[in-house]
Amino acid sequence: MTHLSVAGRRIELDKDGYLLALADWSEAVAEALAQQEQLILSAEHWQILHLLRAFYAEFQLSPANRPLIKYVALKLGPEKGNSLHLNLLFKGAPAKLAAKLAGLPKPTNCL
After folding, report:
1. Where is the active site (predicted)?
2. 110 noted as active-site residue
């Protein structure tokens, strides 16, 4: 799929399902992307997605798994900033899937 339809808007996606334009992101777009991944976003997901968007605003890049885990641990504590917790939330691919849902580019060092 190369686009999403959200609230009457056409949202363009790249071949991997990531937004082509960061400005197209909204919570409704995140919900639509999550639905494609058969994922229902909880408050814990939203906490990570908003944190990721703050990371991107600060550093202009999508973090790979290790930096993501470190950043979450720094901001939310070790009980949320660990690989087990993030893997459970994001189907074993937290850096890639969370970046996609947060409307960010695919992390450059993720396959």
Report:
1. 110 (cysteine persulfide intermediate)
2. yes
